[in-house]
Amino acid sequence: MEGYKTIRGFGKVEKLYVDSLFIGYAMSVNSEKEAKEFIRNVKGAHSDATHNVSAYRVREGNTLLVYYDDDGEPRGSAGRPVFKVLEYKGLENVVVVVTRYFGGTKLGYGGLVKAYSETASEALEKAGIMEIIKKEPVEIVFPYNLYSVIEKAIEKFEAEILERNFSVEVRFVVGIIPEQKDEFIKYVNEITKGRAKIREFLD
């Protein structure tokens, strides 16, 4: 799986279209089960609402699971527009629910699409969109006197230490952006004069 965009956590907005109240909820999730549970919880909290429209895009393994529901609104006017916002923004592992309290005035098909899309989009922005970058692991084994040198190299490339082991020598497993991996390995070899043993993990 390559890098992807998601949201930082939870976002909520309230918007008024004519006399209907729209409440948008956005939440980051790690599984389809969590997404369904979030939808169920929002529906439970707003059981008196006219509609609770929902959509999600969740990655499980190599499969992208997608879902949207109009919850009684005219077909294609609610759930799909919310889903399209997720798709347009390229978001994964995200669920959105837009609750509507009908005020008495019909908005029409176009008005519904606009209301649901905008409410979903603002809830997502409120939650904060972030990019998750895939990092590849690289093992570095080195003597203790190179500790500070290796740490500086890791900081320079904004790599992430995934594992640390201390024995006769120090062993790090470092996560590095794929495009920077070769340059990182070359740099570590240069600054340690080849005294650090580097191993790449094969897929």
TrEMBL record:
Q: Where is the UPF0029 domain?
A: 140-195
Impact N-terminal domain: which residues?
A: 19-124
Entry's Gene Ontology cellular component terms: cytoplasm
- GO annotation terms (biological process): regulation of translational initiation
Name the Gene3D superfamilies for this protein: 3.30.70.240, Impact, N-terminal domain (3.30.230.30)
Q: Which domain of life is it from?
A: Archaea
Q: Which InterPro entries match?
A: EFG_III/V, Impact, Impact_N, Impact_N_sf, Impact_YigZ-like, Ribosomal_Su5_D2-typ_SF, UPF0029_Impact_C
SUPFAM superfamilies reported in the protein's UniProt record: EF-G C-terminal domain-like, Ribosomal protein S5 domain 2-like
Q: Which family does it belong to?
A: Belongs to the IMPACT family.
Matching entries from PANTHER family are given as: IMPACT FAMILY MEMBER YIGZ (PTHR16301:SF20), IMPACT-RELATED (PTHR16301)
Q: What name does UniProt use for this protein?
A: Thymidylate synthase
